[in-house]
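Dear colleague,

Thank you for sharing your sequence with our group. We've completed the structure prediction you requested, and as agreed, I am returning the results in plain text so they can be pasted directly into your records. Please verify that the sequence below matches your submission; if there's any discrepancy, let me know and we will rerun it promptly.
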Amino acid sequence: MTRPFEVGVVVRDLALMERFYGDVLGCRAEHRSRVPESIGGPAGLGGELVVVWLRVPSGGCVKLILPLSEPVAAHAVPCSAGRAGLSYLTFHLDDMEPVVAALPAAGARPLSNPVVVRVRGRRISFWTDPEGNVVELVDARGGEPGPGRSN
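Please find the predicted structure tokens below.
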């Protein structure tokens, strides 16, 4: 491998998703490109699209992909680990408290119960982003929960 890992997420609302991953998770827009149908079609991407590359603070990249030729179907239910295919994106954080506090106002929904769970010396929390994609947060410090936390 010659570069950090990248993952592509097909979105319905590019501006909303760019704000979510940028403002809440700290990903920085690095490049944007319009891919014409003449490239997107033969490449197996379905047609014309817009791609925004968001640099993850620790390295790697999340590519937000907006198809322009046909609408993207909404997820009926968040993906689960019990089905084949991509299940979730994981972000490793030094301190998950400020991120967890900001997620609801950004349109995310918690999937963990309690919201932050202690597992093998780490704290984890599962959420859906505003379009239903599942996001896992991992705080390896596993410190004591903040005031009012039930984990």
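Summary note from our side: The chain has a mean pLDDT of 83.

Kind regards,
the structure core
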